[in-house]
From TrEMBL:
Domain of life: Eukaryota
Region (Disordered) residue spans: 1-28, 63-90
GO biological processes: positive regulation of protein neddylation; protein neddylation
Domain DCUN1: 92-284
Protein name, UniProt field: DCN1-like protein
Organism: Synaphobranchus kaupii
Single GO MF descriptor: ubiquitin conjugating enzyme binding
């Protein structure tokens, strides 16, 4: 992820837990979780990374003193070239985006890393483990968890037409609505798989526990009826699966859209991943056991009632 922090890949740490335990393989994880940074609501430490002399909100609300001085010394035609206009007439400034990036940038790397992400999320009043942060990472097209490069941050803010914390916060409702449309959600869903990979290690599949955590997260707004059953299956792991491939991840979205919650229209003859065959067999067996259990309880209750009536 960079020179200064370890990759956030433990689902309990990378998606909101304050624990920084290592996984059974001994791989180190960052101690503060979140989709893009540290645990939400963490206390800001003054020695953690570069610090703005004022709060980021005060610093950027209407332009810094530095920006005011710059506007007096910069020819008007050059100043205008550094601004862009949104369709509604609202202007955003690329230099102000750069200033905002600098407030959270790492001292040694030209990117926002773990400590900066924690402060960034805290200043945005969002929990790093929540869906809004995943959507923000999607809009920024972030390649790596716990990191925003300068280009990702600047281009992402330009796409949002926001150059301040208030501007980014104001875009959240629109971003959430945008993520609900079929095509956009499909794009977000596929982005989430790539986002969860450890690109530095050349991963091609998601660790099972990471995939479970990301499935819960990406389906925050619209959870398919079969999701919890699917995640129970993966947690119990009767098939011994260790990783989720890109094909399995992508096909599960199709599965939720095509196959009904009762699984009655599922066919093994169709081109589903073999893991889905195992899942359907597991569900059928579990439902059979649950039905037998209900019948046994009903018979036991009836027998006890009959005995009670027969007693003097």
């Amino acid at each position: 992820m960079g020179q200064c922090v370890t990759k956030c890949k433990n689902p309990s740490s990378s998606l909101g837990s304050k624990n920084g335990d290592k996984d059974p393989s001994g791989k180190a994880h960052c101690k503060k979780g979140g989709v893009i940074g540290g645990a939400g609501g963490g206390v800001y430490k003054e020695d953690a990374g570069p610090v703005c002399t004022k709060s980021a909100i005060d610093l950027l609300a209407n332009g810094t003193k530095k920006m005011e001085e710059e506007s007096r010394t910069t020819p008007s035609h050059l100043e205008e070239s550094r601004k862009e206009s949104a369709p509604d007439g609202e202007e955003f400034s690329v230099p102000r985006i750069e200033v905002l990036f600098g407030c959270y940038k790492d001292e040694l790397d030209d990117a926002i890393l773990e400590e900066g992400m924690e402060r960034f999320c805290n200043d945005l009043c969002v929990d790093p483990a929540e869906f809004r942060v995943l959507v923000l990472a999607w809009k920024f097209q972030a390649a790596t968890m716990c990191k925003f490069t300068r280009k990702e941050f600047v281009e992402g803010c330009k796409a949002l037409r926001a150059d301040s914390l208030e501007g980014i916060c104001a875009r959240f409702p629109c971003m959430l609505l945008e993520a609900r449309t079929e095509d956009n959600f499909k794009d977000l869903y596929r982005f989430t798989f790539q986002f969860g990979l450890d690109s530095e290690e050349g991963q091609r599949s998601l660790h099972r526990d990471i995939a479970i955590a990301l499935w819960r997260l990406v389906f925050t707004q619209d959870s398919p009826a079969i999701l919890e059953c699917w995640l129970d299956f993966l947690t119990e792991n009767p098939s011994g699966v260790k990783g989720i491939s890109r094909d399995t991840w992508n096909m599960f979205l199709n599965f939720t859209q095509v196959i009904g919650p009762d699984l009655s229209n599922y066919s093994e003859d169709e081109a589903w991943p073999s893991l889905f065959d195992t899942f359907v067999d597991w569900v059928v067996e579990r439902r059979k056991r649950e039905e037998e259990s209900r019948c046994t309880q009903a018979l036991t209750g009836s027998f006890e009632t009959a005995e009670g009536r027969a007693s003097p």
